[in-house]
Protein 1
Amino acid sequence: MLIELKNIIKNYDNGGLITNVLRGINLEVKEGEFMAIMGPSGSGKSTLMHTIGFLDRPTSGEYLFDGIDTKDFTDDELARIRNERIGFVFQSFNLLPRTTVLDNVILPLLYSSSKKGLEQRAKNALEAVGLGERITFMSNQISGGQKQRVAIARALVCDPKVIFADEPTGNLDSKSGSTVMHILEKLNKEGRTIILVTHDINVALHAKRIVTIRDGEIISDRKVLEEERVHSKEAID
Ligand SMILES: Nc1ncnc2c1ncn2[C@@H]1O[C@H](COP(=O)(O)OP(=O)(O)O)[C@@H](O)[C@H]1O
Ligand SMILES: [Mg+2]
């Protein structure tokens, strides 16, 4: 099992005011899955993604990643695993402005242990998202859809086991959103595990499994039937 969460609880303490955000999450994700996490705003989707992605530690509960209890990792070790095994894509792209597309994608490689052929690896990742021709553009001189594709290339460049995407189409028009979903589908077909957070059922139906949370609890966990799955026909140009 790639990811195993057992009774994960996450509370935030703001000056004595405790908010229970995750209230006992039990979840297993196998390598190669394509899972969507759905739920209304404020239900805990991003908090759950941050917990699974080592951006934040749970208050209590057990989290095994690749069979290893993550409690045993120091913060530095978690940061290294996060950099090498996990790729993140956010709604707001989070690219460095006034920096080229290529340099944005090279950036995570500078922190990784394998520094061979940085530029070639970044170019390969950009080709995989259809942006091989745009590498010298500044990241603020390309469209929103292209920015999100750069963000996917940046997530891909360290060859991660898992890609987390939090509302990746939330700031995009429907055509660019469809292209982004096409790329995520392709990456999953190639064997990558994808965990997608969305409140949009039409986006979630690209996945093979939908987990719904409400008020910090999983209220449903189901397979997406092949006949209801949505496949993006928007090819990358
Ligand atoms: N750092 C924090 N301190 C206190 N409350 C927080 C913090 N981060 C998130 N929350 C609260 O946790 C709940 C879930 O947030 P979030 O995981 O962002 O939900 P979603 O992504 O589903 O919209 C919200 O009520 C939010 O206000
Ligand atoms: Mg959120």
Protein 2
Amino acid sequence: MKSTTLSLASTLACIADFYDGCKVGCEGFEGYRKSADLTKFIRCAGELENGQFINPRHTIFVDLGCADGRVNLLMSYFVKKSIGIEIDPDILGEYQSHAAELGCRLTENQLTVPPANISLFAGNSLADETFQRIRAHTGVSFKDVDIFYTYITLHDAFAAKIAAQAKVGSLYLVYGFNKILPRYDGLELLIADVASQGIATLYQKTA
Ligand SMILES: C[S@@+](CC[C@H](N)C(=O)[O-])C[C@H]1O[C@@H](n2cnc3c(N)ncnc32)[C@H](O)[C@@H]1O
């Protein structure tokens, strides 16, 4: 393995270790903002990269319910632009302190700090107004997005919006289902079990 590859693997492992140490919603009433397991997510991103579904030079990624932006931070190493939307501004507000603490840890360990390609927005992912704001700030419109992501939250409503408004060929990564997988009108199931962990499914918008 080349040293740059080794360094990226160490960087991603450090990020997963940091965020997986402060997962939210695994117990009690905060289930609605459950955090993805970033150790598993790294394997999903690796499989998407190996299958050429994502590319660091071209891909625009959007987390439709990004909470504290942890998936955005991880995906920033795999894509050109990593955009997140969170309806609760207090939850989104946690991004800065977590990212700052993580940045210190990465620097102390001589690992790679995230690229400056992360943009997070407070708003409702179902509202056109949110994407108009995103376009004004980043130049990215809904039709430019290559891969949308959700951790179960509003997965069927987001699928309907993607089927109606996204570009043909755009991808939809849904985290959190196992065995019984949802089907969506206008989207084809592409990979039932991304990275064989029983946790993530990839769909694609058909014509
Ligand atoms: C299950 S958490 C997932 C957090 C993160 N994406 C992850 O994978 O770890 C879902 C988040 O979506 C947010 N959310 C719910 N409805 C939303 C909407 N319409 N637009 C944007 N965010 C929303 C919730 O507040 C919550 O923080």
